[in-house]
Structures are given as structure tokens and as C-alpha cells.
Amino acid sequence: MERREESGSIFSCEGGYPDDVMAYYTNNGLATGGDPQATVAEPTGCLPYPSLMADSASCPTACDDGSALDTQKAGEYRTITSKNVDEIMQELYIYGSVVVCFDVYEDFYYLGPGIYQYSYGPNVGSHAVRVIGWGVENGVPYWLAVNQWGTGFGDNGFFKFLKGADHCGFESLVSFAYPSDAY
Fold first, then answer.
1. Superfamily name with CATH number, domain 76-182
2. pTM above the 0.85 mark?
3. Are the C-beta atoms of residues 128 and 99 closer than 8 Å to each other?
4. How distant, in Å, are the alpha carbons of 14, 26, 55, 57, 179 from that of 145?
5. pLDDT-based confidence at 19, cuts 50/70/90?
6. Collapsing DSSP states into helix, strand and coil, what is residue 7?
């Protein structure tokens, strides 16, 4: 989900909703990066580039070298608002990842290894992250998520979040897109 700003209100760290990104992906497509079998000597598609946190990069319609932008559309997107943990787990198992929005509190910024559970500080806004799995640690169920704040956050960029309690609204707004070849 690198393409953000052309879908309306989706500016990194400036608000927006993942389901808007999913709608954009379904209707317009996103850059694929080209043929995954291509070699470094003869790449296809646009090469990836770094984007600073809170930087709303523009999304070009052609590659820097003038070649066509290889895009892929989603077949369909959905949003789960039922807080149904089994449904979220099913989507993760079948398609690999989902995006969740949740309320962020001050202590989240200081997260290290272990399962996050709110303990102190005011609400500082909302955040969206990619969830890639789930597990149990010391008898406590958790979601495994990837944060886009880099490897200095959490456990090398990953973190565990309390599962099954809709903690901080983590299970209230879950979005995902099906690949166009999933039908």
C-alpha cells in the first residue's frame, strides 16, 4: 500500500482511511514493481524508492526512465467492522495480511518486545498498520503486526498487540483487498 495521496484523504500522518486505499487499488491499480523474475541487470517496472516518514510522495503515472508503469488492480476489497476475530484470522490465513486502524496512546511510542497493552498516557491519535499473523505468548493471544516507522520501532519494526479484546479498537476496522486472480 505505497500509493496514498491520489485516493482522496489518504496522506501519511495527515489522516485518511485504509479502505480508501483499497478502493483506489480496486478501481485504479497500484504499481507492481514489474516482473519478479527480472534481473538486477535488466529490471522491469519502476524501482522502489525510500520515502521519509510523514512524506506524502507523489505517485507518478510513468517510470523515471519513461517506461510504462506496470500496475495491478485488486479484484475486490472488504472492510470488517464486526470485531470478529475468527473472520480476521481467516482472511489472514487465506490472503496473507490485513490493515487495521486503532487508537494510539503515548506509551505505544515506547514499545519494545512483548505484547502491547495500553498502560499510560493520553490518546495521541489513530494509526494504521499491516497485520501478518497471530500467536500466543505466555498464555496471552496476540496479533503480529508490521509498523511503517522503521526497524527502530518495537521489535525490529514488528510488534505484538493484544488479540481478542478489541484493545484500542484494534479489531474494529479491518481492511483488505483480494488479488484480481483470486476468483
1. Cysteine proteinases (3.90.70.10)
2. no
3. yes
4. 21, 23, 22, 24, 21
5. confident
6. helix
